[in-house]
Write a structure and sequence with these properties.
The complex is a heterodimer of chains A (233) and B (185). By secondary structure, chain A is mainly alpha-helical. Chain A is built from eight helices and four strands, in the order βββαβααααααα. In chain B, a hairpin with a 2-residue loop joins strand 2 and strand 3. Classes of the chains: A mainly alpha (233), B mainly alpha (185).
């Protein structure tokens, strides 16, 4: 009976608050399981719960997946499609494709895009913060720990072993990436000059990427696929 | 203070131009070793090892580690912020203004050439990291470090077996630690 006499709303910190008609705050609870509630019943109050959810979802995605990029897709699907119903699966694949076609870390791009679609620029920032935080904490701890023992003889032995495996893993990455990327003659024709430029002439990465981008645009639009693009429009 | 700003700007540059995610940051991180004395090529192998065996996106982990190496905890925060800010700006703009961004013929065209070019650059970077990691440099002559080299060749061969590919990199690194300590690499 007591509750009927009071308003229930979500305050700026994402807490459920109850106020009675004299508008005096009675008590607040953490906002778990309040998704059914209608926010914003009090003017000037912002519903923060969605931000908290965005942060937590991407915190989990960042903290529980290894490797980023493609490795994160199942986790993204679980959190964003199945758990929160923020997106449909084809939408997620679209976003993922955009993440790949834009500069920067793919995982960050995906997080920003989803956050933006949900809650604008602030949403994008919050989602990205969620993604970044686990890495920041874990890497700082590991790096600090490693730094303090790096002069130890046994650690040095271990590092020499690790180096061998890191090289093997990276060579394998190059191999698998190459198989995926260099499928057409066109791709090979672009890769070889880039390889020569980087290897023999030490041309900086940025310059190579820009030249490749311009070349690709010209080739694709003006010379090669120009008609196709016209038909599509 | 000056270094802080420099770290921020350098990583912002990486965030702005590293196309292709994690491994694509490697060439840029390598260029930083040539430009500044923030960390060495040897540090870079440790960075890759740690980044591969901890959760989180590879590129992000490497950038955080590089920042940490340069300026401690706040270096890590600054490098991460630098890396992320261009992404936030670019993605928000694309999400707002460009409906079918990834179907735009200019974008498709540019990326059809960027991907192979980036692959080539990554291949060169990996070659350089391997050269520093597997060989010891004395008087301008590279001599192979036998045990590390042998481990690299064996693991690379094993990685070509389909059944072994599903194992997480951290498992390989754990094996490396054990072998390294037992056989005193």
């Amino acid at each position: 009976m007591k509750q009927k006499k009071s308003f229930r709303y979500i305050n700026a910190c994402g807490m459920i608050c109850y106020r009675n008609y004299s508008n005096k705050l009675k008590y607040g609870l953490p906002s778990a399981g309040t998704r059914d509630m209608v926010p914003g019943r009090f003017p000037g109050k912002v519903n923060m719960e969605i931000y908290w959810q965005l942060f937590c979802a991407f915190f989990r995605i960042g903290g529980l997946t290894f490797g980023g990029g493609l490795a994160q897709l199942p986790m993204l699907k679980y959190e964003l499609v199945q758990k929160y119903h923020w997106l449909e699966e084809p939408e997620l694949l679209d976003i993922y494709a955009i993440g790949q076609c834009t500069p920067g870390i793919i995982a960050i791009n995906t997080a920003t895009y989803v956050g933006y679609k949900k809650k604008g620029v602030m949403g994008g920032i919050v989602a990205t913060l969620g993604m970044v935080t686990p890495s920041l904490v874990i890497i700082t701890l590991v790096a600090a720990a490693l730094q303090s023992v790096i002069d130890n003889v046994w650690v040095q032995h271990a590092i020499m072993g690790i180096r061998g495996v890191v090289c093997a893993l990276m060579l394998n990455t190059v191999l698998t990436m190459g198989k995926k990327t260099l499928k057409s003659r066109y791709a090979v024709a672009v890769a070889i000059p880039a390889l020569i430029a980087a290897f023999f002439f030490n041309v900086t990465t940025l310059v190579i990427v820009i030249i490749a981008a311009v070349f690709g645009m010209v080739w694709h639009v003006a010379l090669h696929d120009g008609r196709k693009g016209g038909n599509a429009e | 203070m000056n270094t802080m700003l420099l770290v921020f700007l350098e990583f912002m540059k990486i965030g702005l131009v590293a196309v292709g995610g994690g491994p694509a940051t490697l060439p840029y991180l390598m260029e930083l070793t040539e430009k500044y004395d923030w960390y060495t090529m040897e540090d870079l192998t440790n960075m890759i090892a740690v980044s591969e065996s901890t959760p989180g996106p590879l590129g992000l982990n490497m950038a955080t580690y590089a920042g940490y190496k340069t300026l401690g905890f706040f270096g890590g925060v600054i490098s991460t912020a630098g890396l992320v800010i261009p992404s936030i700006i670019i993605i928000c703009l694309i999400a707002k203004f460009l409906e079918n961004f990834n179907e735009n013929p200019y974008v498709v065209g540019a990326f059809s050439a960027i991907r192979p070019a980036v692959w080539a650059i990554i291949a060169v970077s990996v070659y350089r990291v391997c050269k520093v990691s597997l060989f010891s440099l004395a008087d301008g002559v590279y001599t192979p470090i036998p045990k590390t080299m042998a481990l690299c060749v064996v693991v690379f061969a094993l990685l070509q077996v389909k059944k072994l590919q599903k194992y997480h990199p951290a498992i390989w690194l754990l094996i490396a630690v054990i072998l390294g300590i037992v056989f005193r690499f």
